[in-house]
Design goal:
The complex is a heterodimer. Chain A is mainly beta. Chain A is built from no helices and 11 strands. By secondary structure, chain B is an all-beta fold. In chain B, the strands form 2 sheets. In chain B, strands 2, 4, 5, 9, 10 and 11 form a 6-stranded mixed sheet that branches. In chain B, strands 1-3-8-7-6 form a 5-stranded antiparallel sheet, with no helix packed on it. In chain B, a hairpin with a 2-residue loop joins strand 6 and strand 7 (61-65). The chains are: A mainly beta, B mainly beta. Chain A binds chain B through residues 31, 33, 35, 40-45, 48, 50, 58-59, 90, 92, 100-103, 105-108, and chain B through 1, 4, 6, 9, 31, 33, 40-45, 48, 50, 88, 90, 92, 99-101, 103-106.
Chain lengths: 114, 113
């Protein structure tokens, strides 16, 4: 199906474990973004990518790693999960030619770190 | 760092009432967007305002961008239960970080039948 999909939708893990959240979009959008959403903080940008093999830090990048070997995929890895990384994570994409900077979001991945 | 402050953070009103949600900043934005988010879903764009003083209407929703492009408001007339959700404003930087959006913390709106 066309669109932007995230997996898994729900994940429970333990402190210190590695977790990877997947994001796949079918539009060949140039830009992809990872946000986390926490009560009282809204959406905060973790990392973004302007194209394959080009990534850059956002507002809260510490403890996260991203890669973009293919335009359609933008995985987010927590190398050693901490309780403070319990959150809902949203992936988004945007076409390079979208002058209005319109983001299309996935449905989110709810991560709980015990 | 550009920040957007939304108020109120929580609002619960009766069906048929009017309401206004505010999004304020000390920074200038080249454009400002409003998103609505339903439980278990990602935010969905409602509107983008670009010009200072611009007003856009979407049925019973009226969006305004401040003259100085530092603030915005969302007004809902005769609210309905279907308007319930989390409303987020997001600003695009006027100078640096033009490719990134800054989000407010959101206003959780509940419309009671």
């Amino acid at each position: 199906d066309a669109g932007i999909t995230q997996s898994p939708r729900y994940k429970i893990t333990e402190t210190g474990r590695q977790v990877t959240l997947m994001c796949h979009q079918t539009w060949s959008h140039s830009y992809m973004f990872w946000y986390r959403q926490d009560l009282g903080h809204g959406l905060r940008l973790i990392y973004y990518s302007a194209a394959a093999d080009i990534t850059d830090k956002g507002e809260v990048p510490d403890g996260y790693v991203v890669s973009r070997s293919k335009t359609e995929n933008f995985p987010l890895t927590l190398e050693s999960a901490t309780r403070s990384q319990t959150s809902v994570y949203f992936c988004a994409s945007r076409d390079r030619n979208s002058g209005a900077n319109v983001l299309t979001f996935g449905a989110g991945s709810r991560l709980t770190v015990l | 760092t550009q920040l957007l402050e939304q108020s109120p953070q929580f609002l619960s009103i009766q069906e048929g009432e009017n309401l206004t949600v505010y999004c304020n900043s000390s920074s200038v934005f080249s454009s400002l967007q409003w998103y609505r988010q339903e439980p278990g879903e990602g935010p969905v764009l409602l509107v983008t305002v670009v010009t200072g003083g611009e007003v856009k209407k979407l049925k019973r929703l009226t969006f305004q961008f401040g003259d100085a492009r530092k603030d915005s408001s969302l007004h809902i007339t005769a609210a309905q239960p279907g308007d319930t959700g989390l409303y987020l404003c997001a600003g695009r930087g006027a100078i640096q970080g033009a490719q990134k959006l800054v989000f407010g913390q959101g206003t959780r709106l509940t419309i009671n039948p």
